[in-house]
Amino acid sequence: MAAVEVSAVQDPGDLEALAPIVAYAFNDNPEGSLGWLKQTPEHVRLARAGRKVVGGLLRVPMGHWFGGQRVSALGLAGVAVSATARGGGVALAMLREVFVAARREGIALSSLYPSTVALYRKAGYELAGHYCSTKLTLAECPRFRTALTLDELTEADAPEVERLYAATASERPGYLDRAPYHWERVRTHRGKPTLGVAARGANGIEGYAYLATDPAAGFPHDLKLRDFVAATQAAELRLFDFLACHRSTADHAVWYGGAADARLFVLPDKIYKVAVDSTWMLRILDVQRALEQRGYPDVERDLTLEVLDDFLSENGATFRLRVSGGHALVERTSGAGQVCLDVRALSALYTGFVSAAELSRAGLLDGSPRSLATLGLLFGGQAPALADYF
Ligand SMILES: CC(C)(COP(=O)(O)OP(=O)(O)OC[C@H]1O[C@@H](n2cnc3c(N)ncnc32)[C@H](O)[C@@H]1OP(=O)(O)O)[C@@H](O)C(=O)NCCC(=O)NCCS
Fold it and tell me: Are 194 and 186 in contact (CB under 8 A)?
């Protein structure tokens, strides 16, 4: 096969060439894949061997919240290589090009939902957080009375809804600073608008939910919540009451996010099941930026980290991390670090998915007990999660 070149879309024919590759890869129909690619053609990247399109992917510029701060990130979706070009390094060549360009743009992280972990580990990603479903049995959900009203969201509510989402997401490690791409997935389902409802108090919207409707499912069915945010306990109660009012035709309400969900504490019994539906992977594209952009506990610590990165060698170095007042100053330094780890292990540590002590036991991190304790303090805390699938 000719050398692989990666580029942005150059003419409309590019998307038509890529759509059947994406459709075949994900067992979709080409029209559906073309429609999806046409939503954000500026984010599509194509791999060509000679003049022939042999693969592609979608880049989704976004952010992840860590330690209460937004870290710039690139979500990847729809990574696909034509069936006849597989096994020749096209996917890895695409990833390398996308990483180098993202670093140039100042993007610190990349994340994705893998269909195969092996490929992405080769490119420096590691498993770094969960995407859990919570399934509430509506027949057992009590009614709740509150002073909040409940009505349908309108387009005019969008800015307030997005502010409320950001205020709660920023406190949840891993959650997205959503791009329009993600909001579109919240507000539409299979091309049709989802039903948005708001729990309103005297000062405005305190909580909201978006429900995907699917007439093909008939009834009884499960209510699929594309988003469920409650900033106050009154909003939680109002939205649970709203869900309970569906119990004659819906068996369950299902929503996504982390495994530990304090909203459930208002329920009188364990009338729900939480399951890990997927595990996402993270790639640290720029160690210095990633460490500087996230937030930390308000402690004073100084540590050197030696990061090995054989896929993106410009990213591997020894870094001095000085944390103070919830922020870090990071600089490159020379020599061995107090802690040595591969960039993949750093991903799992960075999100708080796996502790330094666990990584050390697994032989994936080298450091003294004192350094491990420092890392535990800086990166530990609530388990990282995502509420969005992309
Ligand atoms: C997965 C896919 C993109 C890989 O493309 P590719 O160009 O064949 O991948 P590469 O040749 O660059 O593979 C590099 C390495 O990744 C791993 N890998 C590649 N495809 C894999 C697969 N399907 N399953 C498990 N590991 C795989 C291998 O370790 C491979 O190295 P090797 O060839 O030395 O064994 C391609 O098979 C595809 O389009 N599949 C269907 C869609 C899909 O699963 N996309 C990923 C969505 S997250």
Answer: yes
pTM exceeds cut of 0.85: yes
Contact 319, 330 (CB under 8 A): yes
- Name the fold adopted by 286-379: Nonspecific Lipid-transfer Protein; Chain A (3.30.1050)
CATH class of 132-278: alpha beta
Q: What is the pLDDT of residues 172-181, one digit of tens each?
A: 999 999 999 9
270-308 confidence digits (pLDDT tens): 999 999 999 999 999 999 999 999 999 999 999 999 999
Mutation test residue for ligand 1: of 86, 90, 281, the one with most atoms within 8 Å of CB:
86
Q: How buried is residue 191: exposed, middle or buried, by Cβ count under 10 Å (0-12/13-18/19+)? A: exposed
Ligand 1 contacts CB of residue 80 (under 6 A): yes
Top CATH class, 4-124:
alpha beta
* Ligand 1 atom nearest to 90, measured from its CA: 7
